[in-house]
Write a structure and sequence with these properties.
The complex is a heterodimer of chains A (320) and B (109).
Chain A (H helix, E strand, L loop, with lengths): L3 H5 L7 H15 L10 H15 L2 H8 L17 H4 L5 H8 L2 H18 L26 E8 H6 L1 E6 L5 E6 L8 E4 L15 E8 L5 E3 L2 E9 H6 L1 E7 L2 E7 L8 E4 L15 E8 L7 H10 L14
Parallel strand pairs in A: 1-5, 7-11
Antiparallel strand pairs in A: 2-3, 4-5, 6-7, 8-9, 10-11
Chain B lengths: L1 E2 L1 H8 L3 H9 L6 E3 L2 E5 H16 L7 H26 L3 H11 L6
Antiparallel strand pairs in B: 1-3, 2-3
Classes of the chains: A alpha+beta (320), B mainly alpha (109).
Chain lengths: 320, 109
């Protein structure tokens, strides 16, 4: 990075106020969002920002003047400017206000083009059809599509839900989230986009669904996976345990001798596959959790049991 | 990527009442669902732009909507221009040349 004084165009002894003024003047000229067509201006703005970060902070400025720090490494981090989104679907929400006039703009433009075509290159006073002047000048243009984004909890996306979305213009959209909706899936609401012009149909609204991760459930294709801790007695003796599924709690039988890593399948408790209409399964992965054994009773029992009960686990796992 | 109100306050480095005011003034217009505001990337970038306008460029709150409106109009026009150029670009070469000649321009790249 060049000398920050040079970048801001101020003297070495400039006051804080002069520095601020110089920065503001440059920022007004160089801010990337005030220069949507100039890609290269971003680097210049970044440099000016970095220079200002040093000189506007009296401690940093003192250290820079004393030669303790140099201007390198003081640059501002990369950032995404609004201009990068302004013409995206989300940005359209803002420039879309003027896009309401989109058809009008095109209408004026075409009226002018037709006037030229009829009368040659129309000079001042030449034949010009005013806006909407010509007979049958009604101009039809379908409305644009609009894209919105909706965050949906895991269970609602899996089991299906209805959500009401209030749009920036106050209009509400009832969104039917079908069961089995996946993360980043796009839902289309026909005719709910931007209005058309001159009686032409409205565009469509697209809702991109973002599925929030669940604290316990994981989705894999149309199956749901869930880790469930069990007690030592449940593992050894078996038992009935209560587990959550996407449609509520169910009772599950743990067979005697269930180990950490054993999986139990709840058939048909998974997620609907939107293509086949089939419902997947839920897999419950067990893990045995030892008790705290405050009174040492377990330790005692196992000591007794351990006599003559050696078993080779690491050899079986190929770790020997 | 989407963001919630408190995340935007942190990411933009503004105060809660600032962001509330920007939404109330409709300078920034996030979507809303039952659980609150949802901000898209574009909304985050726009909030940063507003902070720059107010803090760095010292634009007063009476003038910010004028600046935003001009920026929005500029983007709307750029998009329309882009659409028109794309439409011209899809025409047969002879028609395209005719249009460019009429406009006194060279070939559209």
């Amino acid at each position: 990075m060049r000398d920050p004084y040079e970048i801001l165009g101020v003297a070495k002894n400039a006051s804080a106020d002069e520095i601020k003024k110089a920065y503001r003047k440059l920022a007004k000229k160089l801010h990337p969002d005030l220069n949507p067509g100039k890609k290269e201006i971003e680097a210049q703005f970044k440099e000016v920002g970095g220079a200002y970060d040093i000189l506007s902070d009296s401690e940093k400025r003192r250290r820079f003047d004393a030669g303790e720090i140099d201007a390198a490494g003081q640059e501002r981090p990369q950032r995404q400017y609004y201009r990068q989104y302004a013409q995206s679907d989300d940005g359209m929400r803002y420039s879309g206000d003027f896009g309401g006039d989109e058809a009008g703009f095109a209408e004026d433009l075409f009226a002018e083009m037709f006037a030229r075509a009829r009368g040659g290159r129309a000079g001042p006073g030449g034949p010009r059809g005013g806006p909407g002047g010509g007979p049958g000048g009604g101009f039809r243009m379908p409305g644009g599509d609009a894209t919105y984004m909706l965050e949906v909890p895991f269970v609602e996306a899996a089991a299906g839900a209805r959500r009401r979305l209030t749009l920036p213009d106050g209009k509400t959209l009832d969104v039917n989230i079908p069961a089995g909706t996946q993360d980043r899936q796009m839902l289309r609401l026909k005719g709910q986009g931007h209005p058309g012009h001159g009686g032409a149909p409205a565009g469509d609204a697209y809702i991109e669904i973002h599925v929030q991760p669940h604290a316990h459930f994981r989705r894999k294709d149309s199956d749901v996976h869930l880790d469930v801790p069990i007690t030592l007695q449940e593992a050894v003796l078996g038992g009935r345990i209560d587990v959550p599924t996407i449609d509520g709690r169910v009772t599950l039988t743990v067979p005697p001798g269930s180990n950490t890593g054993s999986s139990l399948r709840l058939k048909g408790k998974g997620i609907v596959d939107q293509r086949s209409g089939q419902r997947g399964d839920q897999y419950v992965h067990l893990s045995v959790v030892l008790p705290e054994d405050k009174d040492g009773a377990l330790k005692q029992a196992v000591e007794t049991w351990a006599e003559g009960h050696d078993y080779d686990v690491r050899g079986k796992a190929g770790l020997k | 990527m989407s963001w919630r109100f408190e995340q935007i306050v942190t990411l933009v480095g503004c105060r809660t009442p600032d962001l509330e005011a920007w939404i109330a003034e409709q300078w920034i217009r996030p979507v809303r669902d039952d659980s609150g505001w949802i901000f898209a990337e574009a909304d985050l970038a726009r909030a940063r732009l507003i902070r720059d306008l107010v803090d760095d460029l010292a634009i007063d709150s009476e003038t910010v909507p004028v600046v935003l409106s001009l920026i929005d109009q500029n983007h709307a026009l750029r998009r329309q221009l882009h659409d028109i150029l794309a439409a011209i670009g899809a025409l047969p070469p002879s028609t395209r040349e005719q249009i460019m000649r009429q406009l006194g321009l060279g070939e559209i790249s």
